[in-house]
Amino acid sequence: MTITETESLLDLFEPEWSGRTYEFYSALRGRNPVHWDDLMRSWVVLSHADIAALSKDDRLSGARIGEFHAALPPESRADMAPLAAILQDMMLFREPPEHTRLRRLIRPGLTPRFIRTVRSMIEELADELLDRVVPTGRMDVIHDFSEPLTRGVIALLAGVPAHAAHLLKDWRGLLPEFFSQSSAEMSRLTALREVFDAGAEQRRSGAGDDLFTQMISAQLRDGEYTEDEVFANFLLLIDAGQATTTHLVGNAALALLDHPEQADLLRQRPELAGNAAYEFLRYDSSVQFTTRVATADIEVAGRHIRGGDTVTLVLGAGNHDPARYTDPDRLDLTRKATDHLSFGHGIHFCLGAALALTEIEIAMHRLVQRTRNWRLEGGEPSWLDSVNFRFLNALPIRFDER
Ligand code: HEM
Known about the structure:
Layout: H1 21-31, E1 34-37, E2 42-45, H2 48-55, E3 60-61, H3 65-71, H4 74-88, H5 98-106, H6 112-133, E4 138-140, H7 141-158, H8 174-179, H9 186-204, H10 211-222, H11 227-258, H12 260-268, H13 273-283, E5 290-294, E6 298-300, E7 303-305, E8 310-313, H14 315-318, H15 353-370, E9 371-376, E10 396-401
Parallel strand pairs: 2-8
Antiparallel strand pairs: 1-2, 3-5, 4-10, 5-8, 6-7, 9-10
Residues 62, 91-92, 103, 106, 157, 236-237, 240-241, 244-245, 248, 285-287, 290, 342-344, 348, 350-352, 355-356 line the site of protoporphyrin IX containing FE (HEM).
């Protein structure tokens, strides 16, 4: 198969598939679990086993921003160049040895000890946010609860001062901006750079014990990191750590609205909350795929991927693969889904996975313990216009207090 040939495929952008993502994947997987998609100019991989294997294959590279940037329409390429330069410095888009070096910059801050320390703070913050809305009998799960919760955790982790935390409000992330070729976030980026520069200056004289301080200390101590690299990976932390978790909690709440018997199960058996977090991640992830570029020819499921081709690993499809999960489209909070693909796999495995699991566990536990009888307000909720990021625009509900 060469990239000039076209396979007749289903198109997720067609209105008939709107809101039916997992049915769409199933139809696509049924036709061909590994195929070339002319619209995306990419190979598309939909089976759990192939995604897991390819994520660990070092013939696939995560260094792909150059390709993405070159693929943008010529008129927006210059506008997006500053953003592309920042993305290029993030570990997510680098390969060893740079990837290993940049991962070292953040990993020491996300230790199990840190997560144990912040656990009670996350619980307190979740309860504070619920205290405000529970007596009113209505809330927007995203805007009143999950977004301020994850923003608070990231501000705490990254050491973003309270006066600057508003810059993270409604932050959807740099990648959605890059792909929508919008320069709207550029002013916010400039403001964040100012906060970063001022914070870095303070931390050079030794203030603070947050991850930001550790990053600046590593830069000074090892001289291994440029200031742009520290800034880019500081942004990655904010980026990768916030909207993903906000919307995972939103998607989990929507899943419980559709499965009230599972919400009751979680109310009756709160000890299931840790296990449930994995199932929520499997069932409806906020991140649906990731991409790689082949650096050599690769055979997968009888298909021939050529060096230079782009490969899209559809994590959300792997999570609903019937070859891996019995009755995959059913939410089952007792299911053991620890091998879900929502955090990726291989060297780029999500650095914030343990923190995200803790946030999801606490958020869903507190939500169901303090409220019951949820009703969706305002009809079917709408989604961000993106095939990769499954972000609800809002999730207004009514409920009774427990
Ligand atoms: C990487 C998903 C939360 C930090 C990743 C990747 C995925 C992912 C799929 C790998 C991407 C790839 O292989 O191309 C998620 C989801 C989250 C979440 C679904 C929440 C539900 C977090 C949090 C943090 C974080 C809370 C930090 C506080 C990172 C970082 C990377 C990453 C730094 C890059 C790792 C590397 O390139 O080595 N995440 N993430 N993530 N995530 Fe997360």
